[in-house]
Amino acid sequence: MDSSFLELIKFLPRWGNIEDLLQDEIEARYILKKGTTYMERIRSGDSNGDSEEEETRYLMCALVDRNWERIHTGHFSRVPLAIRKIYAIGCYFKIFFLLLESTSPAQRELCSGILDEAQLLGCMDDWSDLKVALMDYLDKGGSESPEPLPILVPLNRILSSCDIAQLEAPSLNEFKTKCFQPEQPTLLLNTIHHWPALEKWLDLNYLLQVAGNRTVPIEIGSNYASEEWSQQLVKIRDFLQRQFGKNKGNQEIEYLAQHELFSQIPALKRDICIPDYCTIGKEDQPGAVDIKAWLGPAGTISPMHYDPKHNLLCQVFGSKKIILAAPKDTENLYPHESEFLGNTSQIDAANLDFDSHPLVRKVKFFELLLQPGDCLYMPPKWWHYVRSEAPSFSVSFWWE
Fold first, then answer.
1. DSSP 8-state symbol, 178
2. d(Cα 381, Cα 304) in Å, to the nearest integer?
3. Measuring CA to CA, how many Å separate 244 from each of 102, 204, 365, 383?
4. DSSP 102-113
């Protein structure tokens, strides 16, 4: 057993860290008590041999499978946080038992997938140090990209019409009085040029190195409201090769959209900063800020829709055409009737069809081009259509 693996074990939750979480979970309590006890013995060099290890590993795998089923019963938003935490803890211990069995590249790849699923479905906030240490360990000696990816050329700023207010890197007070309080959508020019991401992320090989081994949900098809749209869990390295590599050919458009990439990959979060504008709220203490990543080739589309929170969309590379409409025009924008698409319009904002949607004639639309270094502030429930004009990486910040 190599020393670096033994060093990792110290990051695992101990029984005292998780006992309160398991008060009403008899099965999980029994299995995780065995797991933590066994790992304590590994730390002290006093494990009881293969039979105990095999039994505890089997029980841990059963615990993971059982809570995976509980997470997938009903709507994800209604899954109790305790179940998601138990699932994540179980995945951690399952990974360690698999690594006790073997640390071969194939086994590390298997464990890496388990870790990603734990991040996507579980709740790992209490064990971020373990997550980072485990990612580093599993990624060592991982798969290499068969072909280097391109280094994108920065886009030159172009003069473009803009139908909304524009401010040059406004102060906090200026943003509060001119944008936030009147709920006025505004293009904030040259606001994030201090981000390291603006230069570093143009080198797609950097993204490949830092994030390539992670598994993320990818949207397939240019528009999530179309019948052909679907989702898959994909390694970022495969997504980057298919959409940006030399042999991309006529590959169907894929989009890493609305994903909490920065909680999954802390190294990327160090390349950005949460804008101070997100500290402004109607209460003395603003709520948490949700940070979402949007990465894809030219031609990705988010159909006309609205979000319930304040939204600051920041452009790292590439450019996006955006069409806005005010909340007062909601009844004229033909929202879908289904619960899933209730915040999404049936219209194609870039190609209006007045015969099919005559009420759209009453809507006042606002168009603009979002360019690197700029941010677009959108108040809650403002409708927006977004289309990437070039390979693009955007980061959005949502807050209340």
1. I
2. 11
3. 34, 8, 33, 30
4. ---HHHHHHHHH
Whole-angstrom distance, CA of residue 257 vs CA of residue 393: 10
For the stretch 346-364, pLDDT in tens is 999 999 999 999 999 999 9
Whether the CA torsion 332, 162, 191, 265 is positive or negative: it is positive
Q: State yes or no: pLDDT of 250 exceeds 80.
A: no
pLDDT value for 293: 98
Structure-model confidence comparison of residues 247 and 133, the more confident one = 133
Q: What is the pLDDT of residue 285?
A: 64
Give the number of C-alpha atoms closer than 13 A to the C-alpha of residue 356, restricted to the C-beta side.
10
Q: Are strands 165-168 and 186-189 parallel, antiparallel or unpaired?
A: parallel
Bigger pLDDT: 146 vs 187: 187
- Give the contacts of 44 (CB within 8 A, at least 6 positions apart): none
Q: Amino acid letter at 300?
A: T
From the CB of residue 350, how many other CB atoms can be counted at a distance below 10 Å?
13
The torsion angles phi and psi of 113, rounded to 5 degrees, stand at -65, -40
